[in-house]
Specification:
16 helices, 2 domains, 20% strand, Rossmann fold, 18 strands
């Protein structure tokens, strides 16, 4: 296949831009707030980089276009593919399966067929766009077959893969009727990256058991002589960018305004999540409701602000969750609220980065209680915004971030009494205790930002076993 012009190609389910309509009716693309594009932008610019991804609409074919100096290559999905590849196999099979089967995964053969077909479309696009010997970085669970498909088309490429979500324990992964195909798909990469060391180990063990390849520690030896490396690279955020934003007068003024409009309570507790059943929203709301009901917290003093960003709204389990949370919030506010004092302020909406930073600044306690989470970047964002060393973080031990943020109040979200005790401890902690904890967490987050994460992955991809001459140019200063 003829090679293209990009020396560095990122492949992700989504493009790093959102379509917005300007007041004059014109359609514009705006860079999405995620940290990944921020981290990769410099490398992309120095290497004529291209980003291949879906633009978020169905039945619409768009030509490649430039945005702010980045080459974006849209992949189209039909309405049926959105239902079967994206909502179905990616988000109703793989997502729950990889998150400890928090809800039951559904296995449908048509969904799998669609996943294969769409993965091939992404691989074919990349094969056209990448120059000879280019570096290609495939992202996340939606595209696990791409590494192998791409290698078959373009054996000259250096291919990396990173899984942003957990990789499940071997016992759960075995449920997947297409387990061997997924493992073989990933083995098309030279380097397979995970959030946690345990995930990398699970993967290597499964490859040995299910595919029968020889393995040693983090290496898999393939019969064709190739070696694949599987390692952990805990992802992070644009920490300095968040801190800078949190220091702007505009954000500080907005934080004060938020507290004011909440009635200037003694304690503002905050949760910010995609509305997802993995996030442990029920558990944290129940814990807070009980603390108010039994009088440990007082409705005049404490407010819980929960932002739940709409997500995957046509998937059944997400619809069920939305109704459940609406009911639960209504019940708690109805039971323990008073005129002018709704203890839970529930916002089903998505906000720009500035508003998130203001919320982080306004919150005395941040509550992050997923039942399972690959990393959880909200926890790190909160820490990055607290340059004043104030504020406390309550963090689930089942989030990847727990292994780095050891000074958080760590909780098992299934244990409601334990959660209540930790929440209360965080609320009541004195300034010295919380400053000590926050300082330790800030050291970790500010030093290990997303730039370092991307740099580590790309360096090890370039230098790993079987690497040919390094092709990636470092980003311009
Ligand atoms: C998680 C996944 C991402 C995904 C994001 C938003 O963070 O790891 O791959 O893009 O959720 O979900 P959505 O389905 O809207 O892309």
């Amino acid at each position: 296949m003829a090679a293209g012009t990009a020396d560095f190609v990122v492949i992700a389910n989504r493009l790093p831009v959102d379509r917005v309509t300007a007041p004059d009716g014109e359609t514009l693309w705006r860079k999405s707030p995620g940290g990944l594009v921020t981290a990769l932008e410099p490398v992309m610019r120095s290497n004529g980089g291209a980003w291949i991804g879906w633009h978020g609409a169905s039945d619409e074919k768009l030509k490649p276009f430039d945005h702010d100096g980045l080459q974006l290559v849209p992949v189209h999905l039909t309405e049926q593919e959105v239902a079967e590849y994206y909502e179905g196999f990616s988000n109703a099979t793989l997502w729950p399966l990889y998150h400890d089967v928090v809800v039951a995964p559904e296995f449908h053969r048509e969904w799998w067929d669609s996943y294969v077909k769409v993965n091939r479309r992404f691989a074919e696009k990349a094969a056209k766009v990448a120059r000879k010997n280019a570096v290609v970085w495939v992202q996340d669970y939606q595209l696990q077959l791409v590494p192998r498909m791409l290698r078959e088309l373009r054996p000259d490429l250096r291919i990396g893969f990173f899984l942003h979500i957990p990789f499940p324990p071997t016992e759960l992964f075995q449920q997947l009727p297409w387990r061997k195909e997924i493992l073989e798909g990933l083995l098309g990469a030279d380097l397979v990256g995970f959030q946690m060391p345990g995930a990398a180990q699970n993967f290597v063990r499964l490859v040995r058991q299910r595919v029968g390849h020889k393995t040693h520690r983090d290496l898999v030896y393939l019969p064709d002589g190739r070696t694949v490396m599987a390692r952990a690279y805990p992802i992070s955020i644009d920490a300095a960018g968040f801190e800078e934003l949190a220091r702007t007068p505009h954000v500080l003024a907005r934080a004060a305004e938020i507290r004011e409009s909440l009635g200037n309570p003694t304690t503002v507790i905050l949760g910010i999540d995609r509305l997802d059943y993995t996030k442990g929203l029920r558990q944290r709301l129940r814990a807070f409701g009980e603390l108010i009901a039994e009088g440990s917290l007082h409705v005049d003093d404490a407010v819980f602000v929960q932002v739940a960003t709409p997500s995957r709204e046509r998937v059944q389990q997400y619809k069920i969750l939305r109704d459940d949370i609406n009911r639960l919030v209504g019940r708690i506010n109805g039971d323990v609220g008073r005129i002018g004092h709704q203890p839970i302020q529930y916002l089903h909406a998505s906000y720009p980065r500035e508003e998130m930073a203001a919320l982080y600044r306004a919150a005395d306690v941040m509550v992050v209680t997923p039942l399972r989470d690959g990393m959880n970047l909200v926890a790190k964002e909160y820490v990055a915004c607290r340059y004043d060393n104030r504020g406390s973080l309550v963090l689930s031990e089942f989030a990847g971030a727990a292994s780095e943020l050891k000074s958080a109040y760590q909780v098992n979200p299934h244990d409601i009494n334990g959660l209540k005790a930790s929440l209360l401890e965080a609320v009541q902690s004195g300034p010295r205790t919380s400053a000590k904890r926050m300082k330790a967490m800030r050291k970790q987050v500010m030093e290990n930002d997303i730039e370092r994460w991307a740099g580590n992955f790309l360096r090890e991809l370039n230098e790993g076993p079987g690497a040919h001459a390094m092709t990636l140019r470092p980003s311009a200063p």
